[in-house]
Design a protein that fits this description.
The complex is a heterodimer. By secondary structure, chain A is an alpha/beta fold. Chain A contains nine helices and twelve strands. In chain A, the strands form three sheets. Chain A has a six-stranded mixed beta sheet, with helices on both faces. In chain A, strands 2-1-4-5 form a four-stranded antiparallel beta sheet, covered by helices on one side. In chain A, strands 7-8 form a two-stranded antiparallel ribbon. The two termini of chain A are 26 Å apart. The mean pLDDT of chain A is 90. Chain B is mostly beta strands. In chain B, the strands form two sheets. In chain B, strands 1, 2, 5, 6, 8, 9, 11, 14, 16, 18, 20 and 22 form a twelve-stranded mixed beta sheet that branches. In chain B, helix 2 crosses helix 3. Chain B is globular, with a radius of gyration of 20 Å.
Chain lengths: 248, 306
């Protein structure tokens, strides 16, 4: 179980406190469930993910993983405790190959599993295994490499930050299938997906709406969907014969 | 000839060799050529002035040649001139490199001048690794000079790496590229402590349809200093590209000075130069995969210089 207790975070600039961007977040994430965090841009979704990974430190409040307080642990220590985070905008690495990165994510991974992970995100290992994660890859390709690393880790807590951003439609459908088969009802995994995509929201057990640094709504898909439908749902859906909806 | 452990280790580090290889080979240790074998197609003979060797490859030869230099005694200072004549339509790999072990307080210095003539249609791959070791205060100094002429349709790739332990180096590389010939130079450099490394590369594309490429990747740590001047001259219709990419750390200093000179309206010359520190996002990413910060730094640098 992952627990965020009364988290606050203020960002500073040279003139002192600038803005309180997380304002009293209390959340409990349980194993076996897939959670969506959604809400307006700049509302604090990515900040919550970064607080969990240890990239940001809260001004006050605590984070617990399976009862152990991890608020003071650094990023590497949290990674070893089983937290994994797919960046919204992953960095590039000149000279490191896709194979290198996946092997760092999952030391000792065998060749078959490595190739399987790459195929899961739509990267043919024959073409991509030894490609540099540098400027030669497109944004969408870098994003898929990022997701592959988190899939390879099979961590207890997997956080995906807008996995659909920059990825083509065909890959999104495949990605949803992968997220579904790997994480839905997986008793060992806590899965948190930051998303605006209604099809991804469709596979989540719970939806958390974050805005203005606070939880604005939380509940099952059925409970929350009516509240956000107007903001998230595709207005042109009918013209596509509702084909965009992912059928579970 | 038997090598002691130190020489063998040094040899292995710069050439990956674990024994004396077959084929043409010249191994110079502490100022003397202690192994020299010619092959049926490649002859190695001393130059008349006694200051190096002359290597001649017969036309149409395919072979790998080893010509490493080791300095294991303190205070050796030498200048060596070697010439390489690669016959027409040959396909040759030359493994060179210089390793200095200097545990003393007097300086060790190797200045090597390599002159290549690559014949019409021939291919050359030249791999040179420089490294220094030893805990004394004596400096390990290397000043390599490379001059290369590529005749019509020839191609060459020069890989020059200096990763560790060389205190002071001034590298000079001059190339003449004739028609339809292709040259690619890849330099990898890491400096640390108060090391100083300078490199001047000048490619002259003198023949129509020639192409030249300079790729430099470097990392400067501590208070080390690097100066990289890359100059491309296109006298005719040709293609040339310079790419210098550096990671700067600590209190180091890097100058990166590309120069393009076109003397023909059909010459296409480009350059890219970038200097920057390791991005915080890169470190955070690797730490989120479980690496400690220092491990992440090492992996980023190793990858960058690979």
């Amino acid at each position: 179980m992952l627990e965020l207790k009364n988290l606050y975070m203020t960002v500073y600039d040279e003139n002192g406190p600038a803005k309180e961007i997380i304002r009293g977040i209390n959340l409990v994430f349980e194993k076996g469930k897939v959670y969506a965090i959604t809400g307006p841009n700049g509302g604090g979704k990515t900040s919550i993910a970064k607080l969990v990974m240890g990239i940001f430190s809260p001004t006050s409040g605590e984070i617990y993983l399976n009862g152990e307080e991890i608020t003071q642990l650094n990023i590497s220590e949290r990674a070893h405790r089983g937290i994994s985070y797919a960046f919204q905008q992953p960095p590039r690495f000149k000279g490191l190959t896709i194979e290198d990165l996946i092997k760092i994510a999952r030391p000792g991974i065998d060749q078959l599993a490595l190739r399987g992970t790459m195929r899961d995100v739509g990267l043919c290992p024959e073409d991509y295994l030894f490609r540099d994660v540098g400027p030669g890859l497109s944004g969408g390709e870098v994003k898929r490499v990022e997701i592959a690393q988190v899939l390879a880790r099979e961590a207890e807590v997997s956080i995906f930050d807008e996995p659909e951003a920059g990825v083509d439609l065909w890959t999104i459908q495949k990605l949803i299938g992968i997220l579904y088969s790997k994480f839905k009802n997986n008793p060992n995994a806590i899965t948190i997906i930051i998303t605006h995509n209604e099809n991804i929201l469709g596979i989540c057990d719970e939806i958390i709406v974050v805005g203005n640094g606070m939880v604005q709504a939380q509940g099952t898909r059925e409970e929350v969907w009516p509240l956000i439908k107007d903001d998230v749902e595709c207005k042109m859906k009918e013209q596509c014969g509702e084909l965009l909806t992912y059928e579970i | 000839m038997k090598f002691d452990n130190l020489s063998m280790e040094l040899l292995n580090t710069i050439t990956d060799l674990t024994q004396i290889p077959d084929g043409a080979v010249n191994i110079r240790v502490d100022g003397e050529s202690i192994v020299r074998n010619s092959s049926a197609q490649v002859t190695i003979t001393s130059r008349e002035d006694g200051r190096g060797f002359s290597l001649v490859v017969k036309p149409g030869t395919q072979e790998t040649i080893h010509v490493p230099v080791l300095i294991t005694q303190a205070g050796i200072q030498e200048t060596v001139y070697n010439t390489f004549n690669i016959g027409e339509n040959s396909d040759i790999t030359i493994i060179a490199g210089c390793g200095i072990h200097n545990p003393s307080h007097s300086d060790s210095k190797h200045d090597g001048v390599h002159e290549f003539v690559v014949g019409t249609g021939a291919r050359l791959r030249y791999v040179e690794k420089h490294m220094g070791q030893g805990s004394g205060q004596g400096k390990r100094i290397m000043n390599p000079t490379t001059r290369i002429t590529l005749h019509s349709g020839a191609s060459a790739e020069l890989e020059m790496t200096q990763i560790k332990g060389v205190d002071d180096t001034h590298r000079s590389t001059i190339a003449y590229i004739e028609d339809k010939a292709t040259l690619k130079i890849v330099e990898r450099l890491m400096t640390e402590g108060d090391q100083v490394a300078e490199s001047d590369v000048k490619l002259n594309i003198v023949g129509k349809g020639g192409s030249g490429q300079i790729i430099s990747r470097s990392v400067a740590r501590d208070t080390s200093v690097q100066v990289f001047r890359a100059s491309l001259l296109g006298q005719v219709e040709c293609n040339g590209h310079v790419e210098c990419d550096s990671i700067i750390m600590d209190k180091a200093r890097i100058s990166s000075i590309p120069e393009l000179v076109a003397e023909d309206s059909e010459a296409v010359l480009t350059h890219e130069a970038a200097i920057g520190k390791i991005a915080g996002e890169q470190l955070i990413k690797l730490m989120s995969l479980g690496l400690m910060e220092q491990e992440a730094v090492d992996i980023i640098i190793d990858g960058f210089l690979r």
